[in-house]
Amino acid sequence: MAETSPPAVPTPPVARRKIPRPVVLLVRLVLIAVVAWLLLRLLRGVDWGEVGYALTHLSAWQIAVLLVVIVIRRAILAAPLALLIAGLSYLKAMISDVAAAAVATIAPSPGDVVLRLAMLRSWGIDTTDAASGLTLSTTLFYVARLAAPLFGFLIFWAARDFYAPFAWSGLLFGAGAFVLLGGLVYALRAGRTAATIGRLLGRLIQRVRPSGPGPAVWEERLVSFQSHSAGRMQQRGWLAMLSQVLLIVVEAGVLVLCLGFVGVNLDGQTVLVMFCSFMVLYPLTGLPLMGAGVFDATYAAFVSNHSTVEATDLVAGLVVWRVAVQFLPVVVGLITIAVWRRFT
Prior knowledge:
By secondary structure, this protein is mainly α. It contains 13 helices and no strands. The longest helix has 47 residues, at 215-261.
């Protein structure tokens, strides 16, 4: 009788290296402590009665100006999408942008992308055009967001003096912007790399789903995506990048305007401090809820250290700014989504 071989012992899966739980907990506690310290420092000198008075005594013309400025801001935010997606009108780009902003505020991040793609497909936009335009516009947005601290530091240094925290922020985030921009430029020129990645991706997917598309199909898809993205960037990439530079200026200007409306004296040096502080801290608005609490406390600390603006006025202006750029777009976005679903 033939001798049977012993059953093979299954190889235990290799455990992925994870960050130790105590380290994660320590980092969270440090962040919470820093934010709490900043908030306590800010709130300690706030007269909430004056804050309420400033918020409830905005004049009709000030509210009208804010509404116009917010529309301009949304138009600039939607500019890259309209420029980089063929056949997409400016109005539809704004509708898609404000709807996605509402979803991103109240739901996890992929939800806004799913909504954008669904909207674009409902308007007859080709899938490759939609995916390419969304990828390029999002990448350019983050390049601008990371480059803002570097510009803020350079303006502050040239106009006033050298400030080490601004310098470190500009250096760190500027390096991130440079790396991201370099990766984008390489991806737009690397047709062979796209083909290789497509083949590898196809093989991996075929192992999981043998009935799915093979490596040749995925190679064709990624090469088409890469060439299409490169073509759109060659045609209108400089306009899209220019719109992002303009966006940084408008974003800082909106906050300065809100602070002026609540009674802050907008002399040259104060405006310089408020403008540059916003640019240096602009990456913090990428946190959930636009960095609510973290951005506000840090911004107030920077401005108060370099000007005579009172904490009460800073809090009032920041509240007006958040209502204008965060609360109103969410309301409009949810209404837009409801209308789109009704008529699509």
